[in-house]
Amino acid sequence: MTERRERPKVTVHVGRVEAVERLTPHMVRVVFGGEGLDAFATAGYTDSYVKLLFPPPAEGDPEPYDVQEIRESRPREEWPVTRTYTVRAFDPASRRLTIDFVHHGDAGLAGPWAAAARPGDTLRLLGPGGGYSPDPDADWHLLAGDESALPAIAAAVERLPEGRPAHVFVEVTDPREEQKLDAHSGVRVHWLHRGDRPVGALLTEAVRALEFPAGRVHAFVHGEAGFVRDLRRLLRVEHGLPKEDLSISGYWRLGRDEDGWQSSKAEWNKRVEDEEAAALADRT
């Protein structure tokens, strides 16, 4: 007789909206709080992220909310939809969780929700996950990303070690989307204004043109999957950087919503890794 294993419990946190702020024309900051975040804690990574659950809580929903039970007992169309967002900041003393949302009108799910959010609204979330923070032992740092990576980049910039140079490249639509980053004097912040050019084109050109300082670099490259692939190849193949000195991830992909991207991401990453391995072999 096979013993039935008890599935690990997944904690569903509930954040109550405390404040909403429009940071730029296309970036909305939502600050959550409340006792629903009592069990929430990060591991200190600057790229900590959560999975937001939509739709928001409604009258009649079961409490405690069990995502696994819902997925096991209900048809797929009744499952909550998840959207992944970076933890911009979390203060455990006050239980205040800050998340910045890119908002492009009515398109998407989380952006419109954030734009319409008001104090007292609630939202469920899972996590957090994460795995990157600037390595204090690196000789210099490279951070590059688009709007989707800006919250993680901003959090990382605040933790860059004093006395170590850093180059930070952020591609946004236009100057109105720039944000003030809390950087020390050794950090060079390069704002790139995309305009009508494809996402990531300016970013790839700028990083390629950078004259790399001497010493070991710790690099963070996140954002749209196409330019992330190109920059990964630049760093891994052309500059010969080891994987352990890189945090590289495609947060999203042009032409796909998060569900479509997550379902194909493993295959995409495998293809990128195979192409990278072949290119590295050709150079030896």
From TrEMBL:
Give residue ranges for domain FAD-binding FR-type.
10-135
Stored Gene3D superfamilies: Nucleotide-binding domain of ferredoxin-NADP reductase (FNR) module (3.40.50.80), Translation factors (2.40.30.10)
This protein's source sits in the domain of life called Bacteria
InterPro entries hit by this protein: FAD-bd_FR_type, FNR_nucleotide-bd, Riboflavin_synthase-like_b-brl, SIP_FAD-bd, SIP_fam, SIP_rossman_dom
Name of the protein this chain belongs to = Siderophore-interacting protein
Annotated source species: Nocardiopsis changdeensis
